[in-house]
Amino acid sequence: MYSVIIVAAGKGSRLNLGYNKVFYEINHKTVLEYSVDYFIKDPDFSEIIIVTSEKDLNHMKSLFAGKNIKITLGGITRQESVYNGLKKVTNKYVMIHDGARPFIDKMDIENLKLAVRDSACVLAKKLKESIAKHSFNKLNSYVNRDNYVLLQTPQAFTTSKIINAYEKAMKNENSYSDDASLYMQELHDDVIIIDGNELNIKLTTELDIKILEAIL
Fold it and tell me: pTM of whole model > 0.85?
């Protein structure tokens, strides 16, 4: 069995919605519900943990009332929020997912389930555009895009190892923007890349809203 932590404690300030972007509705269903419902329907996930802010706590409880879901408070940073979620996990393997990524591909999840038994793993997509360094609005040098990927979620880990990594990061006072980089740097362990679906986008801009409205 697997657990999933869905991080939904952000503000989504770049969209200027005036509320948490995970509550944005597409076809009468919130962005967050698309993610949660996927894991509810997958019998391999016996534990769903949503991390939310104190401001959104009552709304979250109301939205998922009657469902077998754990809801816990996040922290000041995403890193603190994930750790709060990890403390609630009881299964051997855990996936960590952004609540603002509502499009979840079944094959991506199945690939993660298999790969995490051997190694920490992360969904990622390859770059299509050319990549260049710049300075003062002038091109400086080109970078080989084959050496880079765009990371997605879910990211999957052995629970005991990712908790150990988070505790090391806290002890060392290190900050990271995502779970795979924290795991890799703190434990000096490999993270395997799995090709992810290109439609697994994170709701960040108005363009993302239009794309998600078209595919959900």
Answer: yes
